[in-house]
Amino acid sequence: MCNDKLDYNVVSPNYVLDYPDSKDIEEFHKHVNHNDAMAEIYFKEGQEELEEDTIKLLKNNGKYQNKKQNRYDLMLVVRDQGKMIGFIELRLTQDSNFISQLFSVFVSEKHRNQGLASLMIVHAFDFFQRTGLTAMTVSPTIDSLVVYNKFGFYPLGYDDVTMEKWFKKTEEERLDQLKEEFSDLLLNLSKEPCQEVFGNQCEKSTKYRGCFNVSPRVSEDAKTNVLNWRKKPSSPPLISNSDLGVLHPSEDTKKRKAETEVRESESTEETTKKKSIHN
Questions:
Q1: 71 in a structural domain
Q2: Mean pLDDT, rounded, for 93-121
Q3: Among the four 77, 134, 187, 196, which has the fewest Cβ within 10 Å?
């Protein structure tokens, strides 16, 4: 287990992006308990109790190889004066039969409209892009469509021709259609039109970097290829020498969706449900 110190005492008027740990469990529980969409994906069915995998993820500093589910879970958190006020979770897979997933993004209501959701997505996807993987799925709600549309997510199931026509539409036209034809979404960075929209939104999001510091540990780990983590020894494991698993069809029938309620001018909040796709 990784027990290296977190950056609780960073002296800065800005927010800090870091990893979670066991000290964050209580605050994480509070956030989840006050958000119906988060409660749906993080609480045990019919209970106000975090699932074991989530507790392990928090205790392991946001880096957890779920061997049973055959996947690797990664969580980053945003802190304000050491207190968790937002988080993002990715579920990564190497299995060509399945697809990686943006599982959740959350910012507390008090700290919304400051670009924090956008910056979490940008930094989390630094890890994702280093893997060489190109596809990520998400299950949105109406309120989260704005942010996913801006980052280049498009309706799942589109072939190349339909996808190219999709990105010839204006951002407003795409959003209107997403609202009318609600569906799961896909980001595929191997497709040039999608990659261009994603890159442009990442660049726009950098205007918020002044209010957002990244811990040295996250910055260093983001330079690594997570597909190589499993090749390195681990005692104790940092993120750059942890194992990477593969996403397996869930044995849990609980519906996996996550709603985010951040209302940001350039990027709103997001939700995700656990999604696996057969090629």
A1: yes
A2: 88
A3: 196
Q: Tokens representing 90? A: 């990715």
Percent helix, percent strand, percent coil in the chain, to nearest 5: 40, 20, 45
Other beta carbons within 10 angstroms of residue 250's beta carbon come to: 13
66 - beta bridge partners? 71
Q: Which two tokens stand for residue 156?
A: 């799942």
Which range is least confidently modeled, 119-133, 216-230, 254-268? 254-268
Helix, strand or coil, per DSSP, at residue 167: coil
**Which residue range(s) make up the domain with 191?**
15-227
Q: How much is the pLDDT for 261?
A: 39
Q: How many domains does the chain have?
A: 1
Nearest Cα neighbor of 244 from 122, 97, 69 is 69
**Of 116, 108, 110, 117, whose CA–CA distance to 30 is shortest?**
108
Position 65 scores a pLDDT of: 82
Residue 243 lies in a domain: no
Whether residue 40 is predicted with pLDDT greater than 60 in this model: the reply is yes
Q: Is residue 137 part of a domain?
A: yes
Instruction: Say if residue 103's pLDDT is above 80.
Output: yes
Higher pLDDT residue, 274 or 21?
Answer: 21
